[in-house]
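Fill in residues.
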């Protein structure tokens, strides 16, 4: 790419910085167009006055944002099971939400919950109950 004179990368979705190697590897480059690459940031690796640069609507010559924050941790098993309980309009299993979730009715653990069986427990959930009433006719 040392013989390249013009490089038009405008109107793409380029992200991050222009590689530093472009400044030394493209020795004949006299024009670069980076217009409308809004996620480009950082400094250009070209000697001032040597390359004509078109930068409309980019973030170049501004600092790049840091990496995105890590995603939040998944909810704990206990909070997930309590959310299941809280979604019900009727939950007759009174031990749910107190103490160790491995001791709750229907929860089977092997160091962590591996199965939940609350079948035949008279649990009601509003949306399901509403559908059942609509079918009674």
């Amino acid at each position: 790419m040392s013989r390249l004179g013009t490089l038009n990368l405008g109107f793409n979705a380029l992200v991050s910085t222009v590689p530093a190697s472009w400044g030394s590897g493209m020795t004949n480059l006299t024009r670069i167009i980076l217009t409308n690459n809004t996620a480009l940031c950082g400094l250009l690796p070209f000697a001032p006055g040597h390359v004509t640069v078109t930068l409309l609507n980019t973030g170049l010559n501004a600092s790049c944002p840091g990496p995105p924050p890590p995603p939040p941790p998944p909810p704990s098993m206990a909070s997930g099971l309590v959310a299941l309980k809280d979604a019900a309009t009727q939950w007759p299993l009174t031990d749910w939400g107190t103490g160790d979730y491995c001791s709750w009715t229907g929860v089977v653990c092997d160091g962590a919950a591996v199965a939940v069986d609350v079948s035949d427990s008279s649990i009601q959930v509003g949306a399901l109950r509403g559908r059942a009433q609509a079918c009674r006719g």
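The two ends are 76 Å apart (CA to CA).
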